[in-house]
Design a protein that fits this description.
single chain; alpha+beta; 3-stranded antiparallel sheet; 15 helices; 13 strands; 33% helix; elongated
């Protein structure tokens, strides 16, 4: 997804994103486009609820404020959040994170009072109603993003909770009411407020930014303070001018993984400005639409829609393994490839970690892989941008069927190829699947002079010619070194030594 130059965050009415039978209206298409471009450019968008739903959300914020203010000042150790990723789908009730000055109450349908650590206290009011409201909104937003990506209707239903939940089922999605910076929260007294020289306290530094593992996250707060990093790397305040019926939506890592990286996750942090004016803290309602624990994240829907899926997204990932990894591991291509799960002899799916070679990062990429990655980069940066500006949905052919298409004037893909300037002799398939020679033609079209500035001498080698070509390359490299050093043609030179020196830039 690429942005269309929106000057501010996109504002969309939830009512305009509701799916309906029949042909999509112009209003629906416009709303979907505004939402998707805002997510691409700012990693967030503003959703407008109905007046009734907005009032319900505000009443929940008022109730949460009363709930946290009556909490005791000193905390017991059993409510300190320990961030156990293995229990991510079981969290319920009150917990605190003193180092971040944050308190939360998690509501998760399917957890009975006897299972909840907060069974003896009254929770904030209206949580079941708010959960139902925001869960429906998150699913509608997810379907709108799917429509923009040209996926089928409700493509993620297999990895979402049942609606309604069946007996003994516990919701994977969670509704949290949160309090940041309550000054009577003595569990965080190691933060010395009086030691601050100015009136601003940054609750999360830039290097401590967060990224959710959800599909979609919805946030409504009583005060501004949520910052999200846009596609240019700038931190922007996204809830500074929200109306009473508006909330923020942003995508998470699960959606990033399920869409093969086409939807980037939002990096965010929260701060409290003018702390002296916010002695009671900042209160927010956060809903996270999560995948079910016993399911698998894969990119089959993206492939079915004709999107290219890069190597790091091709292996399916079990949700349990996914949730137990850190955000850094999930965003690292090498780590993503280790989260596969082969079928065991008994037919069960068991998660395993492939051992990475200790020197894998030291080895240069094979020429064919370098060429493939370059082709995929140009597709994302150049071709997709052209298609977005012209309103074209890229749906590639298969290599076999397109070999005949390029010879026909009225072929199924001829109009798209002409619109985006596709190379005439290159099949209209995802660059990842093109032969190496066709990849070079593709790159030369969108980046003229590309091959002259890139070393592609090994790309078109046949297997039987490898040793002969390497010998010639070594000899030619030695000649270049001799010429550079000004050595006479009759001088005796150890070519193997000079090749090593040349590669080290000596």
């Amino acid at each position: 997804m690429s942005g269309n130059g929106l000057p501010t965050l996109g504002r969309v009415r939830l009512l305009d994103l509701l799916p309906f039978e029949g042909t999509a209206s112009d209003l629906y298409k416009l709303s979907v486009s505004t939402l998707s471009h805002s997510l691409a450019q700012y990693s967030a968008a503003i959703i407008q609820l109905s007046p009734t739903d907005g009032a319900l959300l505000r009443s929940c914020l008022d109730s949460s404020r009363l709930y946290f203010l009556q909490k005791p000042s000193f905390l017991s150790t059993d409510v300190i959040h320990n961030d156990d990723s293995r229990e991510w789908f079981k969290t319920s009730g009150y917990h605190a994170e003193p180092q971040q000055w944050q308190e939360s109450y998690d509501f998760r349908p399917g957890v009975t009072p006897s299972e909840s650590s907060s069974s003896l206290e009254f929770p904030p009011a209206g949580l079941p109603d708010i959960f139902a409201l925001l869960a429906k909104a998150a699913r509608d937003i997810l379907d709108a993003v799917s429509f923009y990506l040209n996926l089928r209707s409700s493509p993620f239903s297999d990895i979402l909770d049942n609606v309604p939940l069946r007996n003994r089922e516990v919701s994977s999605s969670v509704l949290s009411v949160c309090c940041h910076g309550r000054t009577s929260f003595q569990g965080a007294q190691h933060h010395n407020l009086t030691a601050q020289d100015d009136s601003q306290l940054d609750m999360f530094a830039d290097h401590e930014h967060q990224v959710d593992k959800s599909l979609i996250t919805l946030v409504k707060a009583d005060k501004a303070g949520l910052h999200v990093r846009d596609f240019q790397g700038r931190w922007i305040l996204v809830d500074g001018d929200l109306g009473p019926q508006e909330l923020i939506v942003y995508p998470g890592l699960a959606l990033y993984r399920s869409t093969a990286g086409y939807v980037s996750p939002a990096f965010h942090h929260t701060d409290i400005n003018n702390l002296q004016d916010n002695m009671l803290g900042r209160y927010s309602v956060v809903f996270k639409l999560m995948p079910k624990s016993m399911t698998i994240l894969n990119c089959s829907e993206m492939r079915a829609a004709g999107h290219g899926v890069e190597a790091q997204f091709q292996l399916p990932v079990s949700v349990d393994d996914f949730m137990q990894r850190t955000a850094e591991q999930l965003l690292d291509n090498n780590n993503l490839q280790t989260l596969n799960f082969p079928t065991a002899p008994d037919g069960s799916m068991k998660s395993v970690m492939r051992k990475r070679k200790s020197n894998s990062r030291c080895k240069p990429l094979p020429p064919s892989k370098r060429l493939r990655l370059e082709a995929q980069r140009v597709l994302k940066e150049r071709v997709q941008d052209i298609a977005d500006k012209k309103g074209i949905k890229l749906k590639f052919c298969t290599l076999k069927e397109c070999e005949n298409h390029i010879q026909l004037i009225d072929s199924p893909c001829s109009s798209i190829r002409m619109e985006i300037g596709w190379p005439p002799e290159v099949p209209f398939v995802h660059p990842h699947d093109l032969p190496n020679k066709a990849k070079i033609g593709f790159l030369e079209t969108y980046e003229p002079g590309w091959s002259t500035t890139n070393d592609m001498e090994f790309n078109l080698i046949e297997p039987g010619q490898q040793s002969h070509h390497v010998a010639n390359s070594t000899f030619n490299l030695a000649k270049k070194v001799i010429s550079r050093l000004g050595l006479a043609s009759g001088t005796s030179v150890d070519c193997s030594t000079m090749v090593v020196e040349e590669r080290h830039g000596n």
